[in-house]
Write a structure and sequence with these properties.
The complex is a heterodimer of chains A (279) and B (306). Chain A is mainly α. Chain A has a domain at 62-227: MetI-like (MetI-like fold, Orthogonal Bundle). Chain A has 13 helices and no strands. The radius of gyration of chain A is 23 Å and the shape is globular. In chain A, 45% of the residues are buried. With 306 residues, chain B is mainly α. Chain B has two domains: 1-56; 60-305, MetI-like fold. Chain B contains 16 helices and no strands. Chain B has helices spanning 2-11, 13-22, 27-56, 61-69, 71-104, 110-118, 125-136, 143-148, 157-167, 171-183, 186-193, 198-227, 230-236, 246-255, 259-286, 294-305. Chain B is globular, with a radius of gyration of 23 Å. The chains are: A mainly alpha (279), B mainly alpha (306). The interface between A and B is large, with 109 and 119 residues.
């Protein structure tokens, strides 16, 4: 399978490739295969029964719904942040740029307890919202806030490089042809940015659906109401319901792998579409 | 990204003037968008960060110091340092080996191999822990055998190490592969032709070229390893002083309603996050071809190689 097409001058193919494959198999492939085999051993009828139980459906719906909303919020604000960072010059820009990476660097548990304290009825933000009748902590709204936090950098960092490399000549040509600002953005820039926005959206979805640490504190973990799918896996494990946990995990894995496949296929398709234009 | 603006300016010197003029937004739009971006980042990112330190000092600096120097907290720090050091080292050896095999040689199914290496990034942390419970737990495949031989993996440090290694698996490889791919293998081939051994070639030719990329990857990998919560939480068993990492200790304190102590220990992790970002900015300056954010410009090259 892994044959060299031509003989190379450089040494070390066997040992590095051998180590790569063994390590990859031991740490990643074997454990994931284990889950796959355990899941297929459950049997279709039992699997269907677990997957369609009310509590599982409620948790999956919550996880996907909240991730979808968070990803959408981040596409909008992420575009604004990327735009501001690429197009404008202002003092403190470097700090703002570094701030975008905080959700990557800050452990999710720390983010979780900080957001919960912030949005609880006595917290800095919660105290302003509760007179308005808006409850964030321990409601689905809190889950959306936490997911927006963790997935923000994914969207910004997907859009930023594409916006940076965008050729000003194209915008200039559009302007010369009479397009005003709004038209240039909607009809020239946005189609060019669309694949990056879509990638950011998909990465954000994939991350948010599986997120646990930041959500588990703010969500309140009420079954049927604020119980996300990863938490339900943990709950089932704590009750020694390994079959149930495996089934939900298999559903989530299938989902995230199809997102991964989607991203790869769309980029493959885009490269093929662009290929003739390249010299 | 001021550096990037400067490069594109010099590259397209002719059109730059007109382009820059066309890209200049009116003052009201500019102010409005900067305002929206700053407000969003302030509320979503900055406030939680400020809160961590404020809440840590809520009961005074001595209480904060006591929470951090508590024996259980120190045990958690020790375990976290050990786990992150071990998993980062293992993933570093793997990342360098994988990058060497993938970028210096031609073989079939290269794209598949790269996709497989990237796989752990798309697995939920909780599932990353669960897969090891299914293998080594009491009801897992190897559970009975391990019990018979009195070997503890789940609810002990080996499982924490495995889960952390799984979660941080792709970091080094996905940073080095695009870097070494871009550099080609001409220099290495010259060294080999001149009589250098394989190891000498790596040590004196390849390593100096990838040094900053490697450091960058190790910083990111280490940050994730130290902060991992979901995967570790599933396999650890939460035994205070034994299988509690720093994030798990923070959770335990928070759930015991000792909020100030929880935030004190959390502030350690937040300080560490600052250090990570600082080092990240520093290494980014050393990496040439610095177009925008390193991680995601290489992220795109990485996926384009698949």
């Amino acid at each position: 399978m892994f044959q060299r097409k031509s003989k190379h001058v450089l040494p070390g193919f066997r040992i590095t490739m051998g180590f790569t494959l063994v390590y990859l198999f031991l740490i990643v492939i074997f454990p994931l295969l284990g889950l796959g085999i355990k899941a297929s051993a459950i049997g279709w009828a039992r699997f269907y029964e677990i997957a369609t139980s009310q509590r599982v459906i409620a948790s999956l719906r919550l996880s996907f719904g909240a991730s979808l909303i968070a990803a959408t919020i981040n596409v909008f604000f992420g575009l604004v942040v990327a735009w501001v960072l690429v197009r404008y010059r202002f003092s403190g820009k470097r700090i703002i740029d570094a701030l975008v990476d905080i959700p990557f660097a800050l452990p999710t548990a720390v983010a979780g307890i900080a957001l919960t304290t912030l949005y609880s009825s006595k917290g800095w933000i919660g105290v302003w919202l509760s007179p308005l009748g808006i409850k964030v902590a321990y409601t689905p709204l809190g889950i959306i806030v936490a997911l927006s936090f963790v997935s923000l950098p994914l969207v910004v960092r997907s859009i930023q490089p594409v916006l940076e490399e965008f050729d000003p000549e194209v915008e200039e040509a559009a302007a010369l042809l009479g397009a005003h600002r709004g038209q240039r953005f909607m009809q020239v820039l946005l189609p060019e940015l669309a694949p990056a926005i879509l990638t950011g959206f998909a990465l954000s979805m994939a991350r948010a659906v599986g997120e646990y640490g930041s959500v588990v504190f703010i969500s309140g973990n009420l079954p049927m109401h604020t119980e996300i799918a990863p938490l339900l896996i943990v709950t089932k494990l704590e009750q020694y319901d390994y079959v149930g946990a495996t089934a939900i995990a298999a559903i989530m894995l299938l989902f995230s792998f199809s997102i991964l496949l989607g991203i790869n296929l769309s980029q493959h398709w885009r490269r093929r579409r662009l290929a003739p234009a390249l010299p | 990204m001021s550096t990037a603006t400067v490069t594109s300016f010099s590259n397209k010197a002719l059109t730059a003037r007109y382009g820059r003029a066309i890209q200049r937004d009116p003052r009201w739009l500019r102010a409005g968008l900067i305002g929206v971006a700053l407000l969003y980042l302030a509320v979503l990112v900055l406030l939680p960060l400020v809160l961590v330190f404020t809440a840590a000092l809520a009961k005074g600096i001595t209480a904060c110091w006591h929470a951090i120097t508590d024996p259980a907290a120190l045990d958690a720090v020790r375990l976290t340092l050990f786990i992150s050091f071990a998993s980062v080292s293992m993933n570093m050896v793997f990342g360098v080996a994988a990058a060497w095999a993938i970028t210096k040689f031609q073989f079939r199914a290269k794209g598949l191999l790269i996709t497989l290496i990237d796989l752990p990034f798309s697995v939920s942390p909780v599932v990353s822990g669960l897969i090891f419970v299914l293998l080594f737990g009491a009801q897992g495949w190897f559970g009975p055998w391990l019990q018979a031989h009195n070997v503890r993996i789940i609810f002990a440090w080996p499982a924490i190490l495995l889960a952390t290694t799984f979660v941080t698996f792709p970091f080094v490889a996905r940073e080095l592969i695009p870097l070494m791919h871009a550099q080609g293998s001409d220099e290495e081939q010259a060294a080999i032709t001149l009589g250098a051994s394989g190891w000498q070639t790596f040590r004196h030719v390849t390593f100096p070229n990838i040094r900053w990329g490697l450091i960058y990857a190790l910083i990111l990998c280490n940050a994730r390893a130290m902060g991992e919560f979901g995967a570790v939480s599933v396999v650890s068993g939460h035994v205070r002083g034994q299988t509690e990492t720093i994030p798990l200790h923070v959770e335990a304190l928070y759930n015991e309603y000792s909020s100030a102590a929880a935030f004190s220990v959390a502030s350690l992790l937040a300080l560490f996050a600052f250090a990570t970002l600082g080092m990240k900015v520093l290494t980014e300056r050393h990496l040439s071809r610095n177009t925008g954010n390193r991680q995601f410009s290489t992220d795109q090259t990485f996926r384009s190689l698949e």
